[in-house]
Amino acid sequence: MWQKFSFYDFRVIAHYLGVLMMFLAAAECVPFVVAVVLGEWQPASHYLFGIGVAIIVGSLLRLILPSPGKLTPKQALAVTGFAWLALALLGSIPLYMSGHYGSMLDAVFEGMSAWTTTGCSLVQDIDHMSIADNTWRFTMQCIGGQGVVVIALSLGLFGRAVDSSLYSSEGRSEHVIPNIMQTARFIVRFSMATIVIGTILTTAACLFIGMAPVRAFFNGLWLAVASFNTGGMTSMSTGIIYYHCAPLEIVIMVLILLGSINFTLHIEVWKGHIEHFFRDIEIRTLFVWLSVILVAFVATLCTAKVYDDLPTLLRRAVFTVVSAFSSTGFQTISVNQMTTVISSGALLIIIFCMAVGGSAGSTTGGIKVLRIGVLVKELVAYIKDLLAPASARQVVMYYHVGRRPLSHDLVRANLVVLLLYGVAFLITTIVTVTFGYAAAPSMFESVSMVSNIGMSCGITQPGMPDPLKVLYIVDMWAGRLEYVTLIALLVSIIASIRPKRRVRAR
């Protein structure tokens, strides 16, 4: 029988969504303060209005049940699932008021892209966007990259509701340290420290290429936030290509790689347990996968003769592969080059690269390398079973912060996630092609949305059909929750509102 929500469950869910709406109001104070300090009065009024809306909505939701109890796993699932949608809707209000979006739907698309760290954008005339509006875009990416629930837990916003089910509902099944709140605080502190160091380095690079100090600081901050949180948004219409700075690209790649690694491994390295890092199945799978992809991509670029010299080719290839696998989405290859210059083989390699993301429990999207590594382990074990005597029994182990048995439940769960990603990718590709786009760009755009990448072949733009925008919004939302969470949530809601069948008396 399907799990159903009671009326009390919906009241509890509404209360904690209200808590997150109040958190949204606090987050909007960041661009509001920036606007006031820099004298951007019109954007300041937009964020003041947005803060007011978030406070009103949050207060009304909290009043539905003033004193809720501890969240159950079912309620935690719903809070997490609806939080991303609610934050995208309310967070898009100041963006729409900025005048840089053709419709409210475009602004909601931008909000969902930012919160889910997808990085695709429908902004118009971004080169003249206010610093406050850009700050809000990257603030959403920063919170979304860490995880809304993780940051809320670190701040103690849920009070007595702190529970492992709430932490796990956001796709984090591993605790860095035993206490949930301490785990969340470690993630936030580590991330903030990395972003601060990254900001110093990226700001220095921006100063080096001739930017004014204030502009260099904000560009450096935004790039550090987008890189570590694998978000991929930029403040320039030409994206990361605008900077043309090799040292900056190196810093960005280092930040991306740090954001792509499981926070569990970060703390193990911090404790001095370096052997856990090099023996981990995620790191080994990631190394093999990236090596194969990079060699193949470089080979295809050589045949296409996109770049005249080898250093530039290698630099662009490495950056593209790192950006694609990590779901960051920065592009050093322009949209025009994607569609007209590089070969279809190179495009296909990028698609494969985008499908597999970074580590589980990191800031990345896509199908995590842990799932791929586990499935490869199971494949090898299956072949061994076929060749072994019928009486032989073997226990398959894998290394992930210690030796762990490979259970059938784990393999089944990974297969389900892989299947759901594949179905979503297929449906999105078919729908995109139906709107008249070519097959190869449609495949590229679909995997980019489904895996929260943000790279584009030119389909994602303000003029694309509204139904396609809505589909991509759903893809980004579901991809951030790894599909299983969203499907389980929707099934539970449908089961809850379905009328009970009357049993006829005989």
UniProtKB/TrEMBL annotation:
It comes from Slackia isoflavoniconvertens. Belongs to the TrkH potassium transport family. The chain crosses the membrane at residues 12-38, 44-65, 77-97, 138-158, 190-212, 241-265, 286-307, 313-333, 345-367, 413-440, 477-497. Keywords: Cell membrane, Ion transport, Membrane, Transmembrane, Transmembrane helix, Transport. GO terms for molecular function: monoatomic cation transmembrane transporter activity. InterPro entries: Cat_transpt (IPR003445). Signal peptide: none annotated. It is a multi-pass membrane protein. One of its GO terms (biological process) is metal ion transport. This is Cation transporter. It is found in: Cell membrane. It comes from the Bacteria. One of its GO terms (cellular component) is plasma membrane.
